[in-house]
């Protein structure tokens, strides 16, 4: 399963920039480096102390040409990212130079790393557990400050520590149960059985706490999705551009300019918000317009909440009523826009339409009322994150495994309560251990690893 060869990859985004890094990991890292590097240091690369940076040139001996001026970081196992010998070649960043550097590594004995393989080796070599490996990907993908903080906490191993605490308790219980099976004369006394049931109940509460963090974890990792809705030309694109502080949507006085939804991400209070500017939901004659409306409705269904914009310079229309009927059940912010123009809307009719829910008056043109509107967004974020961040969060994979472990433990409790064989209880708890072990990777299959690491770049 574990291929102990030497791998290489470009570890920085390919493109023009100051620094680009090609990374090697495996037993031949230094030998390959010796073949492709012309170093100024008199020390032999094979004997250079760990965590040393050397200056030199990347050199193609076959073509007898210099490729680039480089700095080379020597990292000796076990105190490296992968717990293997590693070499990091810092080049000037550019697509050609990085590809040439990688090509030289491959020609001289390395192979191209698979997605996430450096982190996979860190896991397989015991430096991190599987939940920490997932945290590495969360750090890479973090779109806001709070998601980054949550991922960093998981990388520290807090979730793994909690899982191991639960496992240790279950292992102790299994030992007691099996002792009574192996030595029938030591049959579980009533008090001992009650003590085990109490401990199992305590571990279920720990699992319930971890399960309660899944919603917060999802919000931190993925953010909340918001659709901006309203009839054509009420200011949806203006709001979209105001929030992003750039002209991402086309703003014109012509109704129906946005023919499809446009999606962008931005940060509010350290949380990621995925914003979709939808096409005005109106009857369109052409196929392109109809498709835009269909996608807008789909976006509304998928969103966590919506921003419903109404034009205060026009009376409530049948279209406003129709749109509200589509979002009636959704969490929403209602904006009364264009307050800089003479007001024609009847606010009493509006209030009845939106079931007396609060609405915020704004002039997006003059940026008036925007701060109050942002407070409404923060309110919705806080409501969706009511559990807060405890320093530990789980993802859907963890949730599924924790639920399975909990179900098995609850079955074990019933087994003991009805005085069934301790052997059955012990067997069930071993299954719970297996589910918990999958979270940290103490038990795993190649399929599980592939599913996790294929998401790395």
UniProtKB/TrEMBL annotation:
Residues 6-127 form the GTP-binding protein TrmE N-terminal domain. GO terms for molecular function: GTP binding; GTPase activity; identical protein binding; metal ion binding. PANTHER family: TRNA MODIFICATION GTPASE GTPBP3, TRNA MODIFICATION GTPASE GTPBP3, MITOCHONDRIAL. Belongs to the TRAFAC class TrmE-Era-EngA-EngB-Septin-like GTPase superfamily. TrmE GTPase family. NCBIfam families: mnmE_trmE_thdF, small_GTP. Residues 226-338 form the G domain. This is tRNA uridine-5-carboxymethylaminomethyl(34) synthesis GTPase MnmE. The keyword tRNA processing applies. Residues 130-457 form the MnmE helical domain. Keywords: Cytoplasm, GTP-binding, Hydrolase, Magnesium, Metal-binding, Nucleotide-binding, Potassium, tRNA processing. It comes from the Bacteria. HAMAP family: GTPase_MnmE. Coiled coil: none annotated. It holds the Pfam family MMR_HSR1.
């Amino acid at each position: 399963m574990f291929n102990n060869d030497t791998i290489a990859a470009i570890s920085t985004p390919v493109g023009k920039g100051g620094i680009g890094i090609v990374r090697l990991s495996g037993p031949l890292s230094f030998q390959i480096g010796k073949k492709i590097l012309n170093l100024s240091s008199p020390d032999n690369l094979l004997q250079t102390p760990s965590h040393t940076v050397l200056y030199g040139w990347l050199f193609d001996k076959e073509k007898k040409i210099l490729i680039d001026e480089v700095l080379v970081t020597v990292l000796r196992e076990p105190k490296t990212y992968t717990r293997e010998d590693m070499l990091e070649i810092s080049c000037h960043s550019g697509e050609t130079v990085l590809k040439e550097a990688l090509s030289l590594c491959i020609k001289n004995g390395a192979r191209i790393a698979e997605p996430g393989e450096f982190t996979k080796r860190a896991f397989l070599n015991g430096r991190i557990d599987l939940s920490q490996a997932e945290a590495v990907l969360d750090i890479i993908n973090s779109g806001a400050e709070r998601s980054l903080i949550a991922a960093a906490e998981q990388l520290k191993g807090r979730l793994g520590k909690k899982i191991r605490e639960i496992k240790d308790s279950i292992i102790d219980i299994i030992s007691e149960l099996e002792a009574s099976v192996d030595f029938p004369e030591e049959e579980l006394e009533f008090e001992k059985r009650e003590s085990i049931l109490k401990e199992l109940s305590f571990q279920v509460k720990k699992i319930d706490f971890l399960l309660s963090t899944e919603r917060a974890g999802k919000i931190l990792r993925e953010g909340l999705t918001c659709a901006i809705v309203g009839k054509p030309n009420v200011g949806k694109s203006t709001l979209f551009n105001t929030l992003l502080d750039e002209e991402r949507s086309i703003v014109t006085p012509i109704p129906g300019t946005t023919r499809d939804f446009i999606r962008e991400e931005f940060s509010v209070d350290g949380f990621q918000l995925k914003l979709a500017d939808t096409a005005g939901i109106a009857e369109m004659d052409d196929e392109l317009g109809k498709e835009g409306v269909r996608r807008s409705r789909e976006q509304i269904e998928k969103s966590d909440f919506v921003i419903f914009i109404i034009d205060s310079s026009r009376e409530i229309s049948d279209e406003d009523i129709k749109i509200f009927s589509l979002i009636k059940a959704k969490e929403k912010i209602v904006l009364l826009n264009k307050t800089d123009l003479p007001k024609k809307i009847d606010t009493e009719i509006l209030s009845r339409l939106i079931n007396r829910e609060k609405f915020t008056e704004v002039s997006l043109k003059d940026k008036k009322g925007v701060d109050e509107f942002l407070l409404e967004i923060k309110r919705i974020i806080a409501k969706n994150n009511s559990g807060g961040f405890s320093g530990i969060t789980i993802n859907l994979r963890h949730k599924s495994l924790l639920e399975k472990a909990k179900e098995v433990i609850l079955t074990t409790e019933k087994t003991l309560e009805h005085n069934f064989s301790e052997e059955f209880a012990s067997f069930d708890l071993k299954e719970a251990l297996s589910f918990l072990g999958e979270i940290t990777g103490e038990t795993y299959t190649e399929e599980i690893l592939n599913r996790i690491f294929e998401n790395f770049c």
